[in-house]
Amino acid sequence: MKVSSDKLQVNGDPSIAYRRISNFSELGGMMPSQVQGWTATENTCSFNVGGMAQVNMKIAQKVEPSLVVITSDEGTPFNFTLAIHLTPGVGCFTSQVEAEVGVNLVMGAMIKGQMQKFVDTMNQQIKAFTEAQM
Hints:
Alpha-D-Glucose-1,6-Bisphosphate, Chain A, domain 4, eight-stranded antiparallel beta sheet, 134 residues
């Protein structure tokens, strides 16, 4: 199952957003209240969501300042890939978040709305954080 956020125009430098999202240890204070037990290094993190199974993630690819690809890591109960695209422009950039989750069709139908909300919210947070730094 794959979901994509809309493309958002963000006023500011994509390097600001890239530095924040390419380092898990910078994201701890941005996690919603449902995220518990957050631990992170620059390239790996783990946490629980609402007391459910532990999620382990790693940064699989970085292309400064335009792309960060995050994947599930060992021990996570399902495979996923999260790609954050930052397309530079003049004085601004376009951001888009895509998620691909390896679940069966029934589970995909059950979580598609939540995943769409997740990528849309993440993209809005990238915009808000970057523009607040101006």
